[in-house]
Amino acid sequence: MADDPSDGGRGVDPAAGGGLPRRTLLASSAAAGGAVWLLRALVRPGAAAAASAPPPGFPAGLDLFQRVYENWAGEIRTDQLWTCAPRSPQEVIDVVNWAYGAGWTVRAQGMRHGWAPLTVADGTPAAADVVLLDTTAHLTAMSLEGQAADGSAAVRVQAGASLEAVLAFAGAAGYGVTSAPAPGDLSVGGALAIGAHGTAVPAAGESPSPGQGHGSLSNLVTELTAVVWDGAAGRYVLRTVGRAEADCGALLTHLGRALVIETVLRVGADSNLRCRSYLDIPAAELFAAPGAPAGTRTLAGFVDATGRVEAIWFAFTDRPWLKTWAVTPNRPPAARAVTGPYNYPFSDSLPEPVARLAGSLVSGAWASAPLFGQVQYLLAKVALTGDITDVLLSGTLVRDVLTGDVLTHLLADGLRSDLWGASRNLLEYVRPTTLRETANGYAVLVRRADLQWAVSQFADFYRTLLAQYAARGEYPVNGQVEIRVTGLEDPAVCGVPGAVPPLLSALRPRPDRPDVDTAVWFDILSLPATPALHRFYRDIEQFLLSLDGDRATVRVEWSKGWAYTDSAAWSDPGVLTQAVPASQRAGGGPGWDEAVAVLDRLDPHRVLSSAFLDALLR
User: Fold this and answer.
1) Is residue 310 flagged as an active site residue?
2) What is the DSSP letter of 433?
3) Which of 43, 181, 203, 466 has CB 3.0 to 4.6 Å from 1, enough for a Cys bridge?
4) Which intervals hold domain FAD-binding PCMH-type (predicted)?
5) CA distance 494 to 440
6) Is the pLDDT reported for residue 38 higher than 60?
7) Mean pLDDT within 482-507
8) Are 243 and 192 in contact (CB under 8 A)?
9) With contact defined as beta carbons under 8 Å apart, do 505 and 595 qualify?
10) Is 409 a residue of the active site?
11) Cα 374 vs. chain centroid, distance in angstroms?
């Protein structure tokens, strides 16, 4: 669930063993009511803080300014970089051709809701020969292109439009998607570039309607328009690429190694969903090993029943928050109807005492992680179900945070454990005011029959590892584990005969294993700068990679953290140059090597590349 796919600037070459430096920022319990990271500054040319002269020969008439780039969790932060906001595709081409002649690079920037250094490297200096393109200011147009007799439709949208805006636009016409990321503040270009996904597989007996797929958003693309090199003309031009063209496979999930400015997405007839929350199932039961006694409430059982699940497991707690979404045309009497997205205000904007506790963690009270996990769980339970019993029976420290005033405020919002409405209103639930945590991310591809096996393997290792760290007085995780389940890419979903799959998608099927049809996504969230976090993430990563074999294929989630050393992400040369490419090559067929070759051919002068991407994509 992420944005801002492309990395730029002159970053450290991770293949040489150098880690990307991490930036420690202070948490602030702001008046908005949450612990949020100090955000970016904006400086226009001519202001006292301007860092350098404008790039020589830059095309006249464009909105050019200097701005600090900072990503979602504040771990990647630059000096003030030259940034422009093109008003049209032609202005994009003008900037790229100027950069080609001047020896600069161009990096597309969306909503900056991402973790990986795919846009710019942390610490990129103002003197770097890089210009950021802010697509979100003007390149946001969208239109309904056609409505088919089978109930599907096509939406043409420019890359800077937010996913929230696109889903609202499609929803107003009666269309939607099956699997959407939880945040709405993702640019469409960024979401497609990293293969953004939600959580959905077909429920038992469910037949998806035309235009509805269970893979990534990239798999819904029917055509796209990208900036490519034209050798005959000796310049970069715009080219529209259809889904059946071989080059499209590399552009559908390009990691920022290309610049896509417009796309057409196939959407299906919208469905009303019922979202139910459960907070009473022990982790040992939900994540039980296969073969558990009849009646055990397992994650795989909920997947079979509804097709759409997410488990949120707060650190040092034993009862996850499980959400399920079921296609439900009419509102059940017990369900609360919702008419807009973001229906968990207790999560969007933390109560002030809880924000203070988060701030104390960032200030160095890392051993408070078990308390913070318990508070987060109880906060969700009270807000969703109205049950305050566990709060009243808890220790003094918990009651000091979840005071009577806080409980009264939570209950005043109304209970939200059973919601019903249009799909986008239930699939979008993460606002920018949500606590900004860092995250690792992996997709474990398995047969659907092995879904519970994968979940139980991970849960047992995570629980044991967390206890081992705590026994040494280390508390690397103060956030939550998030587990989602999706299908793999099925090109037929886009409705284009001969459609090719997204070659670099984590969800690209293995040609040699048609029985592998499911991806289980594992993310562990924690506040940035938590001591021992990178070492813990490395232990998790090495464990997951050890599962890779006949029963599982493990791929990284591009927008999140991966390739960990003991002190940094995106820095382990073995993972970057061996494990990641090998996971994409697994099973044969067109994939990693073909995608790299196409991207290099479409941008042979590497105007749209960076040191990090050059090290990764080779």
Assistant:
1) yes
2) T
3) 181
4) 75-286
5) 30
6) no
7) 98
8) no
9) no
10) no
11) 25
Identified catalytic residue from 67, 77, 107, 113: 113
Is the pLDDT at 120 greater than 90? The verdict is: yes
For 408-435, the pLDDT digits (tens) are 999 998 999 999 999 999 999 999 889 9
Q: 217 by DSSP, 3-state: which?
A: helix
Residue 16, pLDDT score:
31
Residue 53: predicted pLDDT: 84
Work out the mean pLDDT of the chain and round it to a whole number.
Answer: 91
Q: Which of 70, 474, 482, 557 is catalytic?
A: 482
Active site residue 113: yes
Quick one: which of 173, 68, 197 has its CA closest to 122?
Answer: 68
Q: Residues 310, 437, 474, 489: which is the catalytic one?
A: 310
**In the block, which residue shows the tokens 């920037």?**
109
User: Among the residues of 311-450, which ranges form H helices?
Assistant: 345-348, 352-362, 369-385, 389-393, 396-401, 404-412, 423-427
**What is the C-alpha separation between 441 and 556, in angstroms, rounded?**
6
pLDDT at residue 200 in the model: 98
**SS3 letters across 472-531:** CCCCCCCCEEEEEEEECCCHHHHCCCCCCCCCCCCCCCCCCCCCCCEEEEEEEEECCCCC
Can you say whether the dihedral through the CA atoms of 187, 189, 192, 194 is positive or negative?
Answer: negative
The single residue listed with the structure tokens 């749209």 is: 608
**Which is the catalytic residue, given 112, 266, 431, 484?**
484
The 3-state secondary structure of 253-294 reads CCCCCCEEEEEEEEEEECCEEEEEEECCCCHHHHCCCCCCCC
Q: Distance between CA atoms of 212 and 267, rounded to whole angstroms?
A: 6
Flag whether pLDDT at 531 surpasses 90.
yes
pTM equals 0.92
> Is residue 114 classed as helix, strand or coil in its secondary structure?
coil
User: For position 40, what pLDDT does the model report?
Assistant: 30
